[in-house]
Design goal:
Layout: H1 2-9, H2 13-34, H3 37-40, H4 45-58, H5 68-89, H6 94-100, H7 108-112, H8 125-143, H9 147-158, H10 163-170, H11 174-190, H12 192-198
Helix pairs in contact: 1-2, 2-4, 2-5, 2-8, 2-9, 4-5, 8-12, 9-10, 9-11, 10-11
């Protein structure tokens, strides 16, 4: 992605398109983790992602970072601002916005999608680059699952909610939510994209 980012900043339109396409699934996962059920019932998450990509496309010249981590953080910041705007547009109070838009979870995918090995404190630059690439691949793998599988993985593995809250958000019983999660994780393990991303490394439960 670093090469795509550099080429896009030089004005390569094809590289720019590839760059944003590569980040779409990643942003979709972050959007679902940041925005609570109140907004999801009123706004398609894809609208939020599309607006974020449009803003990033228009404002690419304003990006001042130089690394993949800074690029992803920049995108997450745009998405967080757009999520707050979407909620305000739908008549929510300030308190509702603070409750529904989890701005403290802007690093949720980086820190708590523990489908991969724990992050070491002494990672080298090449290891960090590999981890960011893995996150994008994982997002692509999750995006290929059925919607209910995506939702339960986001709630359990990204938002790190206990199963009682997962069940409440899904409108299911706790055992049903647990069973859905197990099926979702099983489907994710078996997906070709997942296997390509992390091979035989295990999932944290």
């Amino acid at each position: 992605m670093s090469q795509l980012l550099a080429a896009a900043r030089r004005g390569d339109d094809q590289a720019r398109d590839q760059l944003f396409t590569a980040c779409r699934s990643y942003l979709a996962i972050i959007a679902r983790a940041q925005v609570g059920s109140w907004l999801q019932a009123r706004v398609d998450a894809s609208d939020l992602v599309q607006q974020t990509l449009l803003d990033a496309h228009r404002g690419l010249s304003d990006f001042r970072g130089g690394t993949e981590a800074e690029w992803l953080a920049w995108l997450r910041n745009i998405l967080s601002n757009n999520a707050a705007d979407f909620i305000r547009r739908h008549g929510a109070s300030k308190r509702r916005i603070q409750k529904e838009v989890r701005l403290d979870q802007t690093d949720a995918f980086d820190a708590s999608l523990e489908l991969t090995e724990p992050v070491a404190a002494s990672e080298t630059p090449s290891q960090l680059l590999s981890r960011h690439e893995l996150q994008l691949q994982m997002a692509d793998a999750i995006a290929q699952l059925p919607d209910d599988y995506q939702e339960v993985i986001v709630l359990r593995n990204v938002e790190c909610l206990p199963f009682d809250q997962v069940a409440q958000r899904l409108g299911r019983s706790r055992p049903a939510a647990q069973m859905l999660w197990m099926r979702a994780i099983g489907a994710l393990r078996e997906s070709a994209t997942f296997q390509s991303a992390i091979g035989n490394r295990g999932l944290a439960t």
